[in-house]
Amino acid sequence: MVDVTSSQKMQLRQNGLAATRPRMALLKVLEAQAQPLHIDDFVELAGGDLALSTVYRAVGELLEVGLVSSLNSPEGRKMVELSTEHTSHHHHVLCKGCDSATDIQFTDDLEEQIEVEMKLIAETMGVEVHSHSLEILGICRDCASDSTTCFCRGDNCESHK
Fold first, then answer.
1. I need a surface site. Which of 21, 51, 82, 125 has the fewest CB within 10 A?
2. What is the pTM of this model?
C-alpha cells in the first residue's frame, strides 16, 4: 500500500504544491479504495468534507504532477486513480451497466507479449511508444444478474427476458 504521508507529500512539494488537506484527502481516498473512482465519488467518500469544485481543482493539480492518472468510464465520465508510478502496472475492466472500473493484472507472459507487439507497432508506424493501457469493456457479474436491463441489444432484447 502507498505511504500517502511521506512520498506523496514530498512529490507535491517538489512540484510546487503544498500538501493541503483536500489534496491529501483525495490521495487517502484513492489509497483506501484501490480502484478508479468517479470524480463525484470523492465528495461522499471524503465524508462530505470536500466540495465538488475543490475536488475538481485538486484532481487537476494532482494530474499535472503525475500523482494520479485518469481514464474515462463507459459513460464518458472521468475516473481517477493513483498513477502507476505509485502502484503496480495494471489494466481495467469497465462495466457498461454500473459504469464502474476494476483493476486487473495480466500475467508477466502476456505483458511481455504486449510489449513485443508495441515494439512492432512502433517500428511499423514510426511511433515512439511510451506506455500502454488496456481497458476491457463488458458487464460485471452484478449487472449481468440483473434481469431488468439488457446491455447487449437494448431494452427489448428477447434473450434476457
1. 125
2. 0.72
